[in-house]
Write a structure and sequence with these properties.
Blueprint lengths: L18 E2 L5 E2 L6 E3 L6 H16 L6 H10 L4 E6 L2 E11 L18 E9 L8 H13 L7 E6 L4 H6 L3 E10 L2 E9 L3 H8 L2
Helix pairs in contact: 1-2
C-alpha cells in the first residue's frame, strides 16, 4: 500500500466544495491548512524559502535548487510541506541513509535500502516564523515516519544554537558530526522511530 494512502493528514491538496460569494456566484477556495508530500514542481518555492532562511545566517543553503529537485525526484515520500491556502509556508526534506552516523556522502545521496531518515533541511517562510510552525511540522513529520515500515530513526545535523530546538522536538545529541561545510561544524542528532505495527494500533496511521 502506498505510504500516503494510510495517512489522512498527508492527502494531496483538494479544493473545498464550492461556496457562494456575496453576489451569489459559486467560487472555489483552497483548504486553509494542508500537509502533503512535496513534488518536483514545488522545488522553486522550497528553494526560495530555504535561501532566505539560511543565507542570512550561515551564508549558504543546506540544499541548492538542483539538489532539491534531485531529492524530490528520488524520494518525495520523505518530504513534507505545510500549505496555507495553497501557499507553501514550511517544509522538510529527507532521504534515506544506511550507516550509523552521517558522513559527507549523506549530503547528496539517497540510499533506498537504508533505515535512517536523514533530515536535510527544515525551513519556515519568514512571514510565518515565531509561530511554532517549525515544531508542529517536525511533529507531523515524525508521526508520518512512524507509519513507514522501513524507517527506524531520524538523523540530522545542526549548528550548536539549534540543538535546544531539536531537543524539544525529542532529538538527542550524538556528538560532533563528521560532516563539515566550509568553516561550519555541526552536532549530529537522532530521534528513534517506533515500529510500524505499534503505531498502526495506537495512532490511526
Amino acid at each position: 500500500m502506498p505510504a500516503l494512502s494510510a495517512l489522512p493528514f498527508l492527502k494531496p491538496v483538494h479544493l473545498r466544495s464550492p461556496r457562494r460569494s456575496p453576489g451569489g456566484q459559486r467560487r472555489h477556495t483552497l483548504p486553509a491548512s494542508e500537509f502533503r508530500c512535496l513534488s518536483p514542481e514545488d522545488a522553486v518555492s522550497v528553494f526560495e524559502i530555504e535561501r532566505e532562511a539560511f543565507i542570512s545566517v550561515s551564508g549558504d543553503c543546506p540544499l541548492h535548487l538542483d539538489e532539491i529537485r534531485h531529492f524530490l525526484n528520488l524520494c518525495p515520500e520523505l518530504s513534507l510541506g505545510w500549505f496555507e491556502e495553497g501557499r507553501l509556508v514550511a517544509f522538510i526534506i529527507g532521504s534515506l541513509w544506511d550507516q550509523e552516523r552521517l558522513s559527507q556522502a549523506a549530503l547528496t545521496l539517497h540510499k533506498p535500502q537504508g533505515t535512517a531518515v536523514h533530515i536535510h533541511v527544515l525551513a519556515v517562510h519568514r512571514t510565518f516564523r515565531q509561530q511554532g510552525k517549525g515544531s508542529i511540522l517536525m511533529w507531523r513529520y515524525l508521526q508520518y515516519l512512524r507509519c513507514l515500515p522501513f524507517a527506524r530513526r531520524a538523523l540530522l545535523m545542526c549548528e550548536d544554537f539549534l540543538v535546544p530546538f531539536y531537543q524539544k522536538c525529542g532529538f538527542e545529541a550524538l556528538g560532533p558530526c563528521e560532516v563539515t561545510v566550509g568553516d561550519l561544524a555541526f552536532v549530529e542528532m537522532q530521534h528513534p522511530v517506533r515500529g510500524h505495527a505499534f503505531v498502526r494500533r495506537n495512532s490511526g496511521c
